[in-house]
């Protein structure tokens, strides 16, 4: 079987420019399938699939949260950590505008708008992660140390 040509999204461009080694993985995207579907399609543990969530504070200031696929973000814990009243997910249309990507294909790399990035601390303890490459049905596997080097996220403990 012929290898599928590597997709070139803004996320891929950013990673190439930064000299990051990664492998691309295509899977059959299904609306609402989330990380459980992508992990199953790729035959990997859902804990290794990292969600890129576009959220906002009470002043509608957007931010990115990176979380394990099998965990949820405690928005109360995140708000306390950031010293704000509340954090909530952005509506999909607003998330698309902020990131420049379509929900379900949001990558933390190469977003349209620069936003602070918060990463669940335990993600950096993994040997490899699978994270969205900027399109639905497209993940990239890479060393989480590279994620830390390129994005320089603030590390948080907000998983539940």
Shape-level CATH architecture? Alpha-Beta Complex
CATH class: Alpha Beta
Number of domains: 1
CATH topology descriptor = YbaK protein
Computed Rg:
15 Å
Give the termini distance in whole angstroms.
41 Å
State the CATH superfamily name. Answer: YbaK/aminoacyl-tRNA synthetase-associated domain
What is the helix content?
25-40%
- Assign the structural class, choosing from mainly alpha, mainly beta, alpha/beta, alpha+beta, or little secondary structure: alpha/beta
Proportion of residues in extended strands: 25-35%
Please summarize the sheet with the most strands: 8 strands, mixed
Average of the residue pLDDT scores: 95
SSE succession: HEHEEHEHEEEHE
Instruction: Show unreliable segments.
Output: none
Morphology call: globular
The total beta strand count reads 8
Contiguous helical run count: 5
Topology of this protein?
Blueprint (H helix, E strand, L loop, with lengths): L9 H8 L5 E4 L7 H9 L6 E9 L4 E7 L6 H8 L4 E3 L2 H8 L17 E4 L8 E7 L2 E5 L1 H8 L2 E3 L4
Parallel strand pairs: 2-6, 3-5, 5-8
Antiparallel strand pairs: 1-7, 2-3, 2-4, 6-7
Give a quick set of tags describing it.
alpha/beta; YbaK protein; 8-stranded mixed beta sheet; 5 helices; 26% helix; 26% strand
Please provide a written account of the structure.
It is a single chain. This protein is globular. The mean pLDDT is 95. It has a single domain, classed as YbaK/aminoacyl-tRNA synthetase-associated domain (YbaK protein, Alpha-Beta Complex), CATH 3.90.960. Strands 1, 2, 3, 4, 5, 6, 7 and 8 form an eight-stranded mixed sheet that branches. A hairpin with a 4-residue loop joins strand 2 and strand 3. It is α/β, with parallel strands linked by helices and 160 residues long. It is built from five helices and eight strands, in the order αβαββαβαβββαβ. The relative contact order is 0.24. The longest helix is centred in the N-terminal third of the chain and has 9 residues.
């Amino acid at each position: 079987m012929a290898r599928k040509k590597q997709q070139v999204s803004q996320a891929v461009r950013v990673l190439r420019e930064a000299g990051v080694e990664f492998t691309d993985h295509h899977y059959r995207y299904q609306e609402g399938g989330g990380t459980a579907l992508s992990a199953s399609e790729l035959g990997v543990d859902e804990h290794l699939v990292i969600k890129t969530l576009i959220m906002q504070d009470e002043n509608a200031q957007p931010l990115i949260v990176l979380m394990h696929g099998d965990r949820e973000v405690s928005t109360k814990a995140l708000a306390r950590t950031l010293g704000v009243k509340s954090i909530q997910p952005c509506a999909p249309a607003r998330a698309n505008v902020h990131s420049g990507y379509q929900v379900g294909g949001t990558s933390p790399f190469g977003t349209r708008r620069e936003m602070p990035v918060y990463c669940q601390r335990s993600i950096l303890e993994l040997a490899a992660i699978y994270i969205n490459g900027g399109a639905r049905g497209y993940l990239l596997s890479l060393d989480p140390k590279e994620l830390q080097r390129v994005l320089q996220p603030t590390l948080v403990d907000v998983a539940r």
